[in-house]
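Question thread 4412

I'm putting together a teaching handout and wanted feedback from people who do this every day. The idea is simple: show students a protein as raw sequence, then show them the structure tokens that encode its fold, then repeat with a second protein so they can compare. Below is the first pair exactly as I plan to print it.
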Amino acid sequence: QEKKRLTICNIARQWEIQQNRIALVASLNQDKDNEPCQINGSATYVFPEESRSLDTILSSAVQGLSVLESHLVEVEGDTLCLYGAGALECLDRNWNVQTAGIIVTVSFIFIEFDEIVQVLTKLKTKFPNLVHLKFKETNLVMLQQFNALAQMHRIEQLTVDHQGNPVVNFSLWKYYVLFRLNRFNLQKINGVKVTETDIVMAERLFGILAYVASSELPHYRMLSLFGESKRKQFHYLLEGKGKKSGIGSEESSDNRRNGGEGTTRATLNYMTKDLHMEKLEEIKERKTFCQTYVENLVKEAADINMKNESLQKLWPQMFIELVRDAVIEIRNKNSYMKLCLQRITDQKQ
């Protein structure tokens, strides 16, 4: 128990240091021009030398702590507790079938949510009876992050601790969760039972959001999100029939029965920071390629146009010279016939 306590304390300190580093970087990015920033109510300046020294201190602190255990994996009854990002590696192990079947709840503590997103598909296969997810100190900061939980095959309970998850300060966060994860039929959120009134309110608050999100996507992007069975529903929605017949509510009830993802809700996705940066880099590369390609086409078109203009100017004189050379060449019929025969012979050889 003492070793467990020390390990958790160590993980908590590493997490705090990491968060301070992130806050420091964000602060420095905002104060690149050495503008005064408010710290504890007083104005001060952040100089490059100070930023380097602070970052060095934080790095040294993390290195010192890394000597101790940096993660913890623990099974308590039917709950799997994962402390620290390194604990996620346990999901790659070959779990005992009996142990994996017991797990009903997985608790993530001191782990970045973006790192958790990458292992959600593993949870589905490793723990078939998993129905409850808990998040504490995971940096859940925006509603969009809950979109990632749609990857799960089953969730009955969701617990998001106030500690380290600023998103719970939004008054409507529970309604958004109910709306986005409606196909799971969540029973409890933070220990409070979900009512029919909550579900109706969630649809009223965020139903238009899914419609707007789907309407902003190009048709080919929308079609790529769904299988063949969903494409007819999408075409039906595009024709405006969905709005007239109230397809939103019908779609919700159908998806609950079928356990499928709604055609419009599927457009509400979450992209991790790393993946977002990769996409931005890819877009940048495509933009550079397209710009270079178009510039080369323009240059080639300009060269062709210049050659064409030059040809138009020279053509009258060239035509006269061609006619003159042809007349001179065929003036002597016998010599011209010999020349033609000689050309044919040369071609055959």
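The second pair follows. I'd like the answer to focus on this one:
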Amino acid sequence: VFQDVGRQWRALLDGEKAKQIEAPETVAEGLVDYTMALANEQIRCVVQAETIRDETGARLTRAHQERFRAELSQTMDIFMGVAEAATQTLADIVFSDLRPITQALYTADWYQDDLLQPVIETLKDYCQDFGDHLDKYLCRRLMQDLLTRFALSYIDAVAGKIKFHKGATTEKLHSELHRASKFFKEHMDGGAVSETLNVVRILISLIDSTPAMIFLEFFSVKKQYPDLPLALIEDILAKRDDLEKAQLKSIVDSLRQKSKGDAGSSLAKQRTLFSKSKSYPPLGSS
């Protein structure tokens, strides 16, 4: 019964989220509020099931205890799965609202205007609601998801029709990284924020590296992020305005030659934040 109800909740979440994202002007208000309520209810169900498992299980004979505890634990997993699907829905809705801005990263509009401020204001409004109404554990999980998606938006945007201008790009990225870090640290542990946003710092270093240092910079980063996609690096280099075609070809050929065999290595199969990129599948993936 619980498995069936869980599937129904997930299907309902998917359907309502699709309508909210694809045609927001046609749907009634309140999906975010109902989704938070559902997530909170599922957490209360987890707590209640845990109480029943621990208190009632102790009164059963040993022959029945193992099955009883196992089935209650499975039930808790179902509740938690729906709660996590609900928080995933919330994150999807937030970044659907931000999509017009994240798709403009590194474009002429990004260089000319302050596109980060509306992002922070949107996140601030949503996070205020999440902090006030969402279960604290789920709120922490959701904030980490939002931070991860924010950081990856800077990586995935490299695949667009953009250009990196020596000096101007990195200066703007440094400024946005500082402001974004300040915002997220108001809601999360500072260490977690710095660790997640490090992928943007890596992006800055690869845009800023001198031609002679790119090779060393790339393999230095790969020690920390073995799944760093070579296709991402090639795109970054191709969109730098300071590299001549012959220079670019020489650097890329060297990186490809040195990276041969990486896809099947055990290190490349390690998964970091880069493996969550939608635009750049990691090494070793199909």
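Top answer:
Good format. For the second protein you could add a caption like this: The mean pLDDT is 92. The longest helix spans residues 62-102.
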